[in-house]
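Troubleshooting log. The previous structure file for this entry was overwritten by mistake, so regenerating from the original sequence record. Sequence copied from the archived sheet and checked twice against the printout by T.R.
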Amino acid sequence: MDLSYSQNLEDYHLSLAFSGQTTGTYIDVGAGHPIADNVSFWFYERGWQGIVVEPQPELLALYQRLRPRDLAIGGLVGRRCGETDFHVVERLHGLSTTLEGFARKAAALGADYQTVRMPVTTLATLCEKNGLGSIDFLKIDVEGAEGDVLFGGDWKRFRPKVVVAEAVTPLASEQGWQDWEPFLIAQGYHFVLFDTLNRFYVAQEHREILARLPSERAPWHAVRHMYEIGRAPENKQHPDHVLAEDLAHGFWASLPYLDSGLLTSLLARARRIAKPDDLAALAATVDTEQFRAALGRIACGYDGGQIVDE
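Regenerated output below.
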């Protein structure tokens, strides 16, 4: 069975629309993590490629590692080129937004946010600068600012065959498409599917896709979901379970050989330590004999020093 990586069957529904198509091009605005909760990875995995736009540097860097065929662009897409404030929600990266009101709602749940100034381009400029011709699908998930992305497009020159836009307000799940859907329909797009989170539209000139895209959400169990398979080392049903086990064994056996800087970085990431004073204290701990002894006790169960039944 195929594995869906997206939050709400978006990739599966798109796969039905493009059934039998072996290559293609996408634009993924507000791409998020390159695999988890990602709409375009299903297609990347099958040989497609495209442009992904993601303003958060840590997530953007992962694209360069995991999806090198894609063009990964750091920044925002809006109504006009320039700069704007971007509110980065801690821990819950999927709630980061240009709309501070939604960031404040996330903060009310215990997730603080920081405001940074970010460059903004338009959808039209993005397409023009990168010489895009045929665009199979455009996906937009920008936490309430989907209309800004759509209004910045040149819909006569650059016409994605399918547009998928998140259509409910962040955290509240209220109707959020009323301000931009009439505009998109006026550009020659037909509404086809509302999956309870996103709305799908097909360009009027692509009737074959209009016929294939379902008008009702597919059954949830039509495909296996990423969240169902959990972490690779812990779930034997995970497609990468064996590889994860091999890597884990090799990693634990190698602990005594890792340098102090790498160990400090690993622990800081796991414990979410970022303040300089806290990092310095952690680095001092890593350099102690007691810490090295702890590494040895962990490693000896994997390096042959301690006989352990598998």
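The chain has two domains: 3-229, 241-299. Archived copy saved in two places this time.
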